[in-house]
């Protein structure tokens, strides 16, 4: 699954799944451009894996466009973009504030759209590919995550739409739907839970495999979708969820 000679962009690459994806792509031989709102952390990751870092807030179109354009100018091409950046803000439909709703949409959904929008001119030249980060919460109901689930469901639909629109140009567009992955974002959820141990056990038991996933397991799936081994796969939402969607969630977010 060599990615040698490919230039791959990853957003939200300073920590968690994004960091693991950037590292895996670099391991497979890709030139990796990392973007994160925390530019200092992104630079640290880039130095470790031999990548190149940008500071960018994916909810801001100017930041996304600069990241894409400067990456293309520096390396002469873009072969793939992984639109991974996202935030999770808890709340039911009634409880979620308008401010939180707009903030989650701006990062999770607008960030994916902007990444695709500005990368597409480059991907047309290379017949490249796009991988978007959805979530298993787009496929099953988990109480208390209305805005997050809404954005992740929209990402699946947007992925399918783009796959249809740009497939004739040889551009593949897919997304990933992770289950519960041990990331700093989920660690924060546990830290603020009234009974963290009970919540962790509940979330573990909601997966058919009986455990959390690790960022590297999602990164392996992302690297596959970026690679030529996935040359006939487009418009697909690949679950990396340990069987959560087929077993059904038993945990609660409160």
Number of domains: 1
Q: What's the name of the CATH homologous superfamily?
A: NAD(P)-binding Rossmann-like Domain
CATH topology: Rossmann fold
Using the CA coordinates, give the radius of gyration.
17 Å
Average pLDDT number: 94
- Give the low-pLDDT segments: 249-254
Taking the sheet with the most strands, its summary is: 7 strands, parallel
- What structural category characterises the helix and strand content? alpha/beta
Give the overall silhouette.
globular
Number of strands: 7
The portion of residues assigned to helices is: 40-55%
Strand residues, percent = 5-15%
CATH class equals Alpha Beta
In order across it, which strands form the biggest sheet?
Answer: 3-2-1-4-5-6-7
The SSE string, one letter per element, is: EHEHEHEHEHEHHHEH
- The CATH architecture classification is 3-Layer(aba) Sandwich
- The end-to-end span amounts to 41 Å
Number of helices: 9
Architecture overview:
The chain has one domain: 3-Layer(aba) Sandwich (Rossmann fold). Helix 3 runs parallel beside helix 4. Strands 3-2-1-4-5-6-7 form a seven-stranded parallel beta sheet, sandwiched between helices. Strand 1, helix 1 and strand 2 form a beta-alpha-beta unit. It has nine helices and seven strands, in the order βαβαβαβαβαβαααβα. The chain has 254 residues and is an alpha/beta fold.
Give the gist of this structure.
With 254 residues, the chain is an alpha/beta fold. It is 48% helix and 14% strand.
């Amino acid at each position: 699954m060599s990615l040698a000679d490919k230039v791959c962009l990853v957003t939200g690459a300073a920590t968690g799944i994004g960091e693991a994806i950037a590292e895996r792509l670099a391991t497979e031989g890709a030139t990796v451009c990392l973007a994160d709102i925390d530019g200092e952390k992104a630079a640290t990751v880039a130095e470790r894996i031999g990548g190149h870092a940008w500071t960018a807030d994916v909810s801001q179109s100017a930041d996304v466009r600069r990241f894409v354009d400067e990456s293309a100018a520096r390396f002469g091409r873009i072969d793939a973009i992984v639109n991974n950046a996202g935030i999770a803000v808890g709340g039911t439909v009634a409880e979620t504030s308008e401010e939180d709703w707009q903030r989650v949409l701006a990062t999770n959904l607008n960030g994916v759209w902007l990444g695709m929008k500005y990368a597409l001119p480059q991907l047309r030249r290379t017949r490249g590919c796009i991988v978007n980060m959805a979530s298993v919460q787009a496929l099953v109901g988990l109480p208390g995550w209305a805005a997050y689930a809404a954005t992740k469901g929209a990402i699946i639909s947007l992925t399918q739409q783009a796959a249809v629109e740009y497939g004739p140009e040889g551009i593949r567009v897919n997304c990933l739907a992770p289950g519960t992955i041990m990331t700093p974002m989920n660690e924060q959820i546990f830290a603020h839970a009234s009974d963290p141990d009970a919540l962790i056990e509940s979330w573990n038991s909601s997966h058919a495999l009986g455990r959390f996933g690790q960022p590297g397991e999602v990164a392996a799936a992302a690297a596959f979708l970026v690679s030529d081994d996935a040359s006939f796969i487009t418009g697909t939402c690949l679950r990396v969820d340990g069987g959560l969607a087929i077993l059904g969630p038993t945990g609660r977010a409160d």
